[in-house]
């Protein structure tokens, strides 16, 4: 039967390819050729157009495509009190590629203040009408995993963790008060546990994988523990998405009991689009009938359209481990986790979402 509450039977991760007018406006703004007000005018126009397009296609969770962001995570984290952007010597290493050399660091006490993302959400809600708005922010684990830390500000890492949790508790309440009922936490930190190679990197950084995993679980559960009962909070677990490349590989096995049996989120968006993600078997640790598992079976990295029957067969395979009525379908990630975007055309992303909707209606009715 049709799923009428979030996450939906046919859903998506959140980001969309930036349209050319927006790319041009952001470039001009960075070169001081237009004002911020002029950039915002273009952002507003393109987000309104995006909302209209999503509605036309029957998309049930309306987002702003992350059109006001350069990065899926740094823009939000850098907007917290006690944080700043800076240019690093090197970017992150992706498969055969290095990202832009931008980063964030802690320079003071972390807190959620008058964050610009609240206005970003309010704009989408205003123009989405009666449709459900999904708003995406990076998981609190991303501050723990990606931000450089000033030891003078936080000599004790546990104090940083505690303040991060408090900031996210305040953020969740602020988004709720603004009208948000569907919030998604995007998280790549879990992928550090998915292979021998990435766990070895953690150990080289002085982090014991089991302890790191326990910290990730603690931070998520504490951050969302006060969420209102009528607010849905999901988490997207990702292995990296930058210009159609990836950061890491490996199945969910090492962290399977914690991810599927120990997190108090309402839904999990999971990558299952290729062999890098492993098998469905870890799903056997799902131990709650109210936990929705959103299968990311269609890739957002390339434009080639998947075979419908093959996707339906994979859904049936997953249902051997989780009841079909707990499953949903989406792309494996966003189409544009950074403003650079993945290597596909705008039309490709709409074709993917249309196929997902078609499959969902045939599988669940």
UniProtKB/TrEMBL annotation:
<feature type="domain" description="Cobalamin-independent methionine synthase MetE C-terminal/archaeal">
    <location>
        <begin position="13"/>
        <end position="338"/>
    </location>
</feature>
<protein>
    <submittedName>
        <fullName>5-methyltetrahydropteroyltriglutamate--homocysteine S-methyltransferase</fullName>
        <ecNumber>2.1.1.14</ecNumber>
    </submittedName>
</protein>
<dbReference type="GO" id="GO:0032259">
    <property type="term" value="P:methylation"/>
</dbReference>
<dbReference type="GO" id="GO:0009086">
    <property type="term" value="P:methionine biosynthetic process"/>
</dbReference>
<dbReference type="GO" id="GO:0003871">
    <property type="term" value="F:5-methyltetrahydropteroyltriglutamate-homocysteine S-methyltransferase activity"/>
</dbReference>
<dbReference type="InterPro" id="IPR038071">
    <property type="entry name" value="UROD/MetE-like_sf"/>
</dbReference>
<keyword id="KW-0808">Transferase</keyword>
<keyword id="KW-0489">Methyltransferase</keyword>
<dbReference type="GO" id="GO:0008270">
    <property type="term" value="F:zinc ion binding"/>
</dbReference>
<dbReference type="InterPro" id="IPR002629">
    <property type="entry name" value="Met_Synth_C/arc"/>
</dbReference>
<dbReference type="Pfam" id="PF01717">
    <property type="entry name" value="Meth_synt_2"/>
</dbReference>
């Amino acid at each position: 039967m049709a799923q009428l509450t979030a996450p939906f039977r046919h859903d998506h991760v959140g980001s969309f390819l930036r349209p050319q007018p927006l790319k041009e406006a952001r470039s001009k703004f960075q070169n001081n050729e237009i004002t911020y007000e002029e950039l915002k005018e273009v952002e507003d126009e393109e987000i309104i157009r995006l909302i209209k397009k999503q509605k036309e296609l029957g998309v049930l969770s309306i987002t702003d495509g992350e059109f006001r962001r350069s990065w899926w995570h740094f823009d939000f984290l850098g907007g917290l009190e006690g944080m700043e952007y800076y240019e690093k010597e090197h970017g992150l290493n992706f498969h055969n590629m290095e990202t832009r050399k931008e980063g964030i660091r802690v320079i003071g006490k972390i807190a959620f203040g008058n964050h610009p993302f609240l206005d970003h959400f309010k704009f989408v809600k205003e123009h989405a009408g009666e449709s459900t708005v999904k708003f995406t922010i990076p998981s609190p684990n991303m501050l723990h995993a990606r931000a450089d830390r000033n030891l003078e500000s936080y000599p004790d890492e546990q104090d940083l963790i505690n303040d991060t949790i408090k900031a996210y508790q305040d953020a969740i309440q602020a988004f709720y008060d603004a009208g948000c009922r569907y919030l998604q936490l995007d998280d790549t930190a879990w992928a550090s546990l998915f292979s021998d190679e990435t766990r070895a990197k953690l150990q080289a950084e002085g982090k014991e994988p089991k302890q790191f995993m326990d910290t990730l679980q603690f931070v998520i559960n504490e951050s969302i523990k006060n969420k209102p009962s009528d607010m849905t909070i999901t988490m997207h677990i990702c292995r990296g998405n930058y210009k159609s490349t990836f950061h890491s590989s490996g199945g969910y096995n090492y962290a399977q009991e914690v991810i599927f049996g120990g997190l108090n989120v309402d839904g999990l968006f999971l990558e299952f689009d290729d062999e890098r993600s492993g098998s469905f078997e870890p799903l056997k640790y799902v131990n709650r009938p109210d936990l929705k598992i959103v299968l990311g079976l269609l890739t957002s990295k390339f434009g080639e359209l998947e075979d419908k029957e093959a996707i339906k067969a994979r859904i049936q395979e997953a249902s051997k481990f989780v009841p079909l009525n707990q499953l949903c379908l989406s792309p494996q990630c966003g189409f544009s986790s950074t403003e650079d975007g993945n290597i596909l055309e705008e039309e490709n992303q709409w074709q993917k979402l249309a196929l997902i909707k078609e499959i969902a209606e045939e599988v669940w009715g």
